[in-house]
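This entry is set out below.
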Amino acid sequence: MNANAQQLIGSGAVLAFLGVALGAFGAHALKAKLAADMLAVYQTGVQYHLWHALGVVLIGIVAQLLPASKWMPIAGWTMVAGVVVFSGSLYALAISGVRVLGAITPIGGVALLAAWLLLSYGVIKAG
């Protein structure tokens, strides 16, 4: 397996593990402590976290299939950054209640969108 694919698949798996752990933490430890609106914010972070963890694994698989593509590592690490910023800011907002953290969330969202476009572009360029 090429190094880019291996690193992305491994990173996606770690992100998935963390997404499940954080989801369980929210469902069990935070449910009684957070207001309903903040619990919903937290759960949105978990949902995007898990879906995009799978996206990172997918990009790793595509990186294995297209080892010469320079776009797959860029797409994968952009998606990892997007998960950290998007979901991380939602987790921090929900737990802390500091609303200004919500201003960071769109930066992560743009990174997630960019990652999907980079994946698409990389696959089309390889064809």
Summary: Residues 2 and 18 are 24 Å apart (CA to CA). Residues 36-65 form the longest helix (30 residues).
